[in-house]
Amino acid sequence: MKFFTFKQFRITDDWSAMKVGTDSVILASWVQIENTKTVLDIGCGSGLLSIMLAQRISDADIIGVEIDADSAKDCEINIENAPWRERLKILRVDIRDYNPKVKFDMIISNPPFFTNSLLPPKDARARARHDSELHLEELLISVSRLLEREGVFAIVFPYLREKELLSEAEKYGLYPFRVLRTKNNPDAVLKRSFIAFRKHSNVQWEEEIMEIRSKQNIYSSAYKELTKDFYLNF
Question: CA 228, 109, 224: angle at the middle one, nearest 5?
């Protein structure tokens, strides 16, 4: 079994459809955590987002929901090995069927979103990378249903589909208040949008752009500052 080692925990993704990646690390490092006591991680995969947030929020209870059995297997191993395992839980359930008694202060997700690209050959990876199992509309319906009135929903999405996401989210009473757009280097096109939503509209958004690497292919100071609590070499 192989592990990706962070400063305070380690992650195995041997079984997971999607591997440890920059998107999840940025999302969990970037999202604001004030007044957060309960977190729901939709499509938690290996559990990376959940475990990162357990490190950041010392008193939050965090539930991950994962429908893929292999990914859930990795998540269970990673939770058991995490220093905060008493505050972490994974449920093998379809989010569309999940009806807890409480709502959540934060919902976070690195969802399947490659609608128009060629499906990868491995079925599990295909499900993780495409909205063939859970469509954007269904995700947003679930978020609107499960999020506290003053809660935060944070998601990473392709920049090219940002307008679609914003338009669909508004239909379900979710409005952006922070947006981080990333590109791989100064000469690259914008690749990802990290967006935080609330249930009340905002006149102005907080917007920024971050380059992950420099022209010399060195991690940027902004990226290192954002993720320094997690990566060993930062």
Answer: 15
Asked if the structure places residue 234 within a domain, the reply is no
| DSSP H helical ranges for 99-230 | 123-129, 136-146, 162-171, 221-227
User: What is d(CA 155, CA 23) in angstroms, rounded to the nearest whole number?
Assistant: 10
How confident is the model at residue 17, as a pLDDT? 77
Would residue 233 count as lying in a domain? no
Integer distance in angstroms from the first to the last C-alpha of the chain?
A: 25
120: left (phi over 0), alpha (psi -120 to 50) or beta: beta
Reported as a pLDDT band with limits 50, 70 and 90, residue 122 is low
| Residue 232 belongs to some domain of the structure | no
Question: How are the residues of the chain apportioned to helix, strand and coil, as percentages rounded to the nearest 5?
Answer: 30, 25, 40
Predicted confidence (pLDDT) at residue 116 exceeds the cutoff of 50? no
Euclidean distance between CA atoms 40 and 104, whole angstroms: 6
- ∠ CA 186-32-190, nearest 5°, is 20
Note the pLDDT of residue 19.
86
pLDDT in tens, 156-174: 999 999 999 999 999 999 9
What residues make up the domain containing 61? 4-226
